[in-house]
Amino acid sequence: MARVSHKKVRQLLDEKRSKITDRQFFTSRILAGHFEDIAAAQTRRYKYNRRVHVYLYWDHKDSNVACTDNTVIKINCGNKIVTKVRGRLERYKIISGLFAHELGHVLYTDFLARQTYLRYLEHEKWFPGPPNLKTTADARNELDLWSYSKAEPRNLQMIQYIAAFIANVLEDGYVEARVLNQFTGVLGCSLEEMRQAQYEDMPTVEQLIEKEDNGECHIFNSILQIMLSYAKYGQIKYGSVPLSDERIQVIFDMIPELDTAVTTTYAKERWQVVSFIMVRCWPYIQEYLDICKEKQDEAAAAGDSTSAGDVLAGFLAGIKGSSEAGEGDGTPVAGAEKGGRIANNSKARSETRAMAGAEDQDEENESGEEAEKANQSGENPDSSQTDSESESDQDENSSPGNKQQATDQEGGRIPFHQTESVSEPVGGEFEYDTDYQRHHYDQAASDIDRMLERMAEKAANKQLENERIQELNDAAQSISYGNVHSGVTVHVHRISEVDEDLENQYNAVSQPLLAISKQLQRSLVQKLKDQQRGGKQTGLVMGRRLDAHALCRNDGKVFYKNNLPNEIPRISIGLLLDESGSMSCGDRCTYARAASIILYDFCHSLNIPIMIYGHSCEYGSGVELYSYAEFDSIDHDDKYRLMDISARGCNRDGAPLRFVAEQLSKRPEEVRILMLVSDGQPSAPGYGGTAAEEDLRGIKQEYKRKGILFVAAAIGDDKQNIERIYGDSFLDITDLNELPVKLTAIIKRFIRV
Fold it and tell me: Count H helices, E strands: the chain?
């Protein structure tokens, strides 16, 4: 391939980079690999040996944001939480935060405990034990729950689904607190960015009530949304709803249990809280499930086979800020459950707890009549107003009636001395602990630039590789193959872009092969260095100079001589592999692939140019050439392409041999070696016997005059025929394990060391 100027390459890179869309960037394997590397770096600290895989996709219709099964992290980069923000940098921060959240589940969530809990429910048991019921109403709720679960099979299915969802709500709060405590760098900062975006997207209690009134959700949806807000952020977005609201009070009554769930490092304690919530909220849950069953029955009557669980999942999908529950079976990393408790938004939680306590105190002091007045008015008895806020309210409610109403309810407000611990219950802003300042992660832009450059480079390499493939095919058509190949078409195939599967396959088999390559290199490298720089050669049996330091030797090797620096002849290698169907016998193709990997690494490490081709004829009389390695690799991924070496069809050796010899003859090196690896003589439609042998002998003689050295390695049972064809160029490989050793030995011989 003709050399491409640096200027043209730079222009090509800039062009490719400018065309990369957000969808392409955020779903690329490069970004996924970036996250996988981060995960690997963080999991190593816990001696978590399994590699976490990341799958990024773009589906704006999918309500799911992210999930994990302890092995794979899936992130929907097309979700509204991502796409609603402007700018690639801001979107990257949100996606990084989603990744940090799911990595927290991988490290700290007990997926096995989830399975155990759901199995216990099938037998009317609580795992790890019964919840701590506080009231007689709780006891009645528990009995009703078990009775409901036995009534219909679908009832149990829905109860399990609700329990799993509640557990995920609590788990979200726990893992985020854990990540924020453990990772103060990129993971923690990205998670903070994502949390802020999710919190701003959460509806207020006032908005939830409006949805209920419009028939868009059920009161239990609202309770779950408020529960999630408290579990993750330690605070609730009230809007203008008073603290006496039923939904808020349900959460206030469960604050001690919720605090336990999101701060304990022991999964069993968290599941006991799940059981408590199930019992405490059972009247809401039962009504909720009955509605789901009605919807399912209506769908079934209309011919839809949607299950009750699917209907329930659709209802719960409206909860903002929650991730999809995973289905894995893993356990937390070693040491994850040590420590007992973790700090979690202490300021925000203390303020919410103060609100709950103040409300309880007011309820004790209010008479039934005063409480009724407060409920009818809709006034928030626990809200304290600043002077500016009071002035604003006065402007909006300037009528005498409104002023009188406010005056009448003044006695229901909390004392002024208690208002310092009470935050304004009009939500929407994200609050940080005042006693903790996180370092901002300012490398996001550079990370994006680096990955965009890699993507542009990959796209440019693909284009250049496609141009190379066209050049190779043009070169194949320009060669005269002789009368014996008249009417034969030659096609050159090459993988333009190496995928992850080939990389994984190479990494799976290459380690012992590369070790052999390094061993072969060690036997040669030092000799090459000595020959290049010259110097003293000792341990000679004969000579004119005695080595005084060796006179004590008994083997007579007491002479030495001085060697002059010697230039190592430049060498290039062409390897042509038979990929006929018979190569599948006895794993011959596997050995040929292994030998290619070793030889490629050997030559690459010693800066010896090498090209590797395979050939077969699968389609009629056409010859199929497969380019695995070229002299001038563009994307440096040729070693992965070697994994595509396979047994395919027939072998029409003459045309491939001429093509590779022609390419090799254009090389500037002093020594050019063409190695053939085959398990038999040519056999293809219209090509075989004496005519084929004469063709091969003629090609050998022609290119031998052009300085090409031939080596034919026979690895099959047809060694005699191959030896007859290639004569002194024949190399017998009886033991396939010796193939790479003997091929590298050929190279050593030609460079005279």
Answer: 28, 12
CATH number of the domain that residue 649 is part of: 3.40.50.410
Residues 559 and 579 in one domain: no
The residue written with tokens 């979690």 in the block is 344
Q: What are the backbone dihedrals phi and psi of residue 330, each rounded to the nearest 5 degrees, phi first?
A: -85, 170
Rounded CA gap, 185 and 39, in Å? 13
CA 238 to CA 593: how far, in whole Å? 67
For the chain, the average pLDDT equals: 82
By residue count, the chain amounts to: 753
- Would you say residue 543 has pLDDT above 90? no
pLDDT, tens only, 562-581 = 665 555 678 899 999 999 88
Long-range CB contacts (< 8 A, 24+ apart) of 293-299?
Answer: 293/154, 293/158, 296/154
For residue 512, the Cα-to-chain-centroid distance in whole angstroms is: 26
Among candidates 481, 497, 485, 437, which has minimal Cα distance to 636? 497
Cα angle, residue 125 at apex, residues 123 and 126 outer, rounded to 5°: 145
Strands 53-57 and 72-76: parallel
In the DSSP assignment, the letter for residue 400 is H
What is the DSSP secondary structure assignment for residue 491, as one 8-state letter? E
Q: Is residue 557 part of a domain?
A: yes
Strand boundaries in 230-315, DSSP class E: none
What pLDDT sits at residue 252?
A: 95
- The domain total for the chain is 3
pLDDT-based confidence at 490, cuts 50/70/90?
Answer: very high
Structure letter (DSSP) for residue 323:
P
Residue 733 has a pLDDT of: 82
Q: Give the number of other CB atoms < 10 A from CB of residue 204.
A: 21
Please choose, from the candidates 222, 196, 234, the residue with its C-alpha nearest in 3D space to the C-alpha of residue 352.
234
Answer yes or no: are the C-beta atoms of 541 and 561 closer than 8 Å: no
| Per-residue confidence (pLDDT) for residue 401, from 0 to 100 | 41
Amino acid at 664: L
> Residue 347, SS3?
helix
The predicted structure's pLDDT at residue 347? 79
Cβ neighbors of 92 (< 8 A, separation 6 or more) are: 26, 444, 447, 448
pLDDT at 364 over 50: no
Q: Is the pLDDT of residue 157 over 90?
A: yes
Average pLDDT over residues 36-47: 83
By the 8 A CB rule, do 55 and 85 touch?
Answer: no
Same domain, 587 and 696: yes
Are the beta carbons of 66 and 73 closer than 8 angstroms?
Answer: yes
| Residue 129, domain extent | 111-182+193-324+341-376+422-429
Q: Name, in order, each residue with C-beta under 8 angstroms of 40's C-beta and a sequence gap of 6 or more.
A: 51, 52
The values of phi and psi at residue 726, to 5°, are -100, -10
Say whether 578 sits in a helix, a strand or coil. strand
Specify the pLDDT at position 24. 95
Residue 537: per-residue pLDDT? 66
pLDDT of residue 314: 85
Read off the DSSP letter of residue 712. E
pLDDT value of residue 752: 57
Which residues are bridge partners to 555 per DSSP?
none
Question: Are the C-beta atoms of 659 and 479 separated by less than 8 Å?
Answer: yes
Copy the structure tokens of residue 536. 């003293």
- Within this chain, do residues 679 and 703 fall inside the same structural domain, yes or no? yes
Per-residue pLDDT at 414 exceeds 50? no
Cα–Cα distance between 105 and 685 in angstroms, integer? 60
Has residue 26 been placed in a domain? no
CA angle (203, 204, 206) in 5-degree steps: 120
CA atoms within 13 A on the CB side of 308: 19
The token pair at 744 is: 């590298």
User: Does any domain span residue 5?
Assistant: no
